[in-house]
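For reproducibility, we list the full input for the zinc ion complex.
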Amino acid sequence: MIFQRSIKTKVSAVGVGLHSGKKVRIALNPAKENSGIIFKRIDLKVPIEIKVEAEAIKETRLSSTIGNGKFKISTVEHLMSALSASGIDNILIEVDGSEIPIMDGSSISFIYLIKSAVVYEQSEIKKFAVIKDVIQVKDGEKFARFEPYKGFLVDFTIDFPHPAFKEENSRVEIDFFKDSYVNDISRARTFGFMQEVEYLRSNGLARGGSLDNAIVLDEYKIINDEGLRYSDEFVRHKILDAIGDLYMIGMPIIGKFTAYKSGHELNNKLLRLMLEQKNKWTIEHLDLHNEKTAILASDYLKEKTGRENIDLEVT
Ligand SMILES: [Zn+2]
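The corresponding predicted structure, in tokenized form, follows.
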């Protein structure tokens, strides 16, 4: 059987909030079996907890924001993406502000932080959401879709009318039961357009945004001196975001996810539709000793126990 995972020790990190520009500290804490992923605002007089679930998403305009009543935590998607990639089921994340720090704009720092806390297997069996039928949402030409597949295949296409976006770099397909998230996705940074950044700043947002935590484009080109980390870094970052958005369901998905120009909003709509269409997916377990699930179970474990070979030092 594949069991649930948490971390052994408490670890913390400090960074800047992308929108507030303020310093924020997060602390990852171990959590017991079946408790799920819980965010906790500890800067409030009475701390509040927000449990991760598709319905906890309150805003999706610039990032994924979760909320409980009037209290919110923004930009959870990159940390959620790293938790998904690390196979974490149960964890308590304390944050002393209304935003998860942006770090370098990718999820590599969170991957490193989770690793340093030592991931371990717990005593309860892990749940997987297995897609049995097509589930799809559309918004004009944009769409996001689940369909049955033995693995977790992500096929993402972006289309930006901008000279820095080359057509050959607009689509990536990755099977997370076979390929390495850490190698192929975790270092892809968020990106933004100069004009957009100016507009956001004039509205009191993106105050913490800089060339240290985002790829920034002017009308013609990328303005970061160091250029891109992957030739198709933009679409890889959209995959990083989608992995985080989809993990709001609280368990890994077994199926194919196809997205065309999708983003936080459409990804979340797809999850909500999935919750409505309960006849189109089932919750299952993976067992190395069961003929039906042995290959999937072994692929999943191999990916989670490190096919990556990159240097995890974060500069
Ligand atoms: Zn992102």
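The chain has two domains: 3-125, 128-304. The chain has a mean pLDDT of 91. Both points were considered when choosing residues for closer inspection.
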